[in-house]
Write a structure and sequence with these properties.
With about 200 residues, the chain is α+β, with helices and mostly antiparallel strands. The protein contains eight helices and eight strands, in the order H-H-E-E-H-E-E-E-E-E-H-H-H-H-E-H. The chain has helices spanning about 25-30, 40-55, 85-95, 145-150, 160-165, 165-180, 185, 190-195, and strands at about 60-70, 75-80, 100-105, 105-110, 115, 125-135, 135-145, 190. The strands form two sheets. Strands 3, 4, 5, 6 and 7 form a five-stranded antiparallel beta sheet that branches. Strands 1-2-8 form a three-stranded mixed beta sheet. The longest helix is centred in the C-terminal third of the chain and has 17 residues, at about 165-180.
């Protein structure tokens, strides 16, 4: 009888006992935009986070983004995901625990403090509130537009913040609420919408 270990998921699959990136994984990470400026510590931390969250960087559930950091004097790489990655982690954690998970209706607030269950004005909302329900407990979070909007040189909203500000802000509020509801599972992971500013 053979004692050979069978690896599933191909050469890019991240194993739970893995302590460093394989050459195949490193090559694909470099092609995805991780430059030679990344430190060994940043790569190790990213591997640990991928293992802990079970998010796959090779299917773009989580990625390492480099941003210029004046204080550090170099490009600093930080892990981030999209809101879909957060939802995957929340659903997996709920399935493992045998608990329950859901949402209350998302609420948008205008500049005068009036809350609405749908955002129809052309102007961006002042705030969004999302409430996550986990095992009968409510975890609410409010995201303020002025704190998250990504702006360009002329201080005007850019990218999706200029096209779909209500949706972008709702993602930020959802990420905040999910991090409250799943603090262990989402610690150290931030969404692209939160990091963009």
């Amino acid at each position: 009888m053979s004692t050979e270990i069978v690896r599933t998921g191909g050469a890019l699959a991240i194993r739970p006992d893995q302590t460093s990136w394989t050459p195949e994984q490193s090559a694909v990470l470099q092609q995805s935009g991780i430059s030679d400026d990344v430190t060994a510590a940043e790569l190790s931390g990213f591997l640990h986070l991928c293992q802990r969250t079970e998010l796959d960087p090779f299917s773009r559930q989580i990625y390492l983004i480099g941003r210029k950091d004046k204080k550090a004097g170099r490009v600093v790489f930080t892990p981030q995901t999209g809101i879909d990655g957060y939802r995957v982690v929340a659903r997996r954690a709920t399935a493992k625990s045998g608990g329950t998970f859901g949402y209350e209706a998302t609420l948008w607030c205008d500049k005068d403090g009036r809350w609405r269950d749908v955002w129809l004005p052309d102007s961006p909302p002042a705030a969004v509130k999302v409430t996550v329900l986990r095992d009968g407990q409510k975890y609410s979070a409010v995201a303020l537009y002025r704190e998250y909007v990504q702006t360009g040189w002329e201080n005007k909203p850019i990218g999706l913040w200029g096209k779909m500000p209500a949706s972008q802000l709702a993602k930020c509020a959802e990420a905040l609420a999910l991090r409250k509801a799943f603090p262990h599972d989402l610690a150290g992971v931030y969404t692209a919408e939160e990091m963009a500013q």
